[in-house]
Fold this sequence. Notes:
Helix content: 55-70%
Distance between the termini: 18 Å
CATH superfamily: 5'-nuclease
Number of strands: 4
Shape: globular
Order of helices and strands: EHHEHHEHHEH
Structural class: mainly alpha
Amino acid sequence: MTAYPDTSFLCAMYRFQANSRRAAAHFAAMSEPLHVASPLLYEFRQSTRWQVFLHSKDRSKGFDRMTAQASLAKLQENIASGALVVVPVDWADVANIAERLSARHTWTQGYRVFDILHVASALHLGASEFLTFDANQKHLAKAQDLRVPL
């Protein structure tokens, strides 16, 4: 496996934002499907639904349900077509890697749980690239010798 994304990459892929063109160009140039683990998909789907909730309370925040449903449908289409592949992982190994990353880096860098889990999943799966637009995850991935091309 070459590349593993985080949620910021999926958000750029499935809902138009500042980094969407870069994400789409990178995705189109990939020589293999994009591999993801189920917690990444859960975080993306949950954050999409959360944006709808925020929008329902304050129209200046988040986005509407139709936009969210279109994003989720596009994601599902890519899974069904094989452009995105949900790969099984050994969660005991991912948790061990995540614990090592947390013990080494969170004291000084303040990483969140999913930041660490995404990088740990990439390492577990043997990724050489980590696809992110998040500065914190970029820093953590580079510290683990993952290439961060975006």
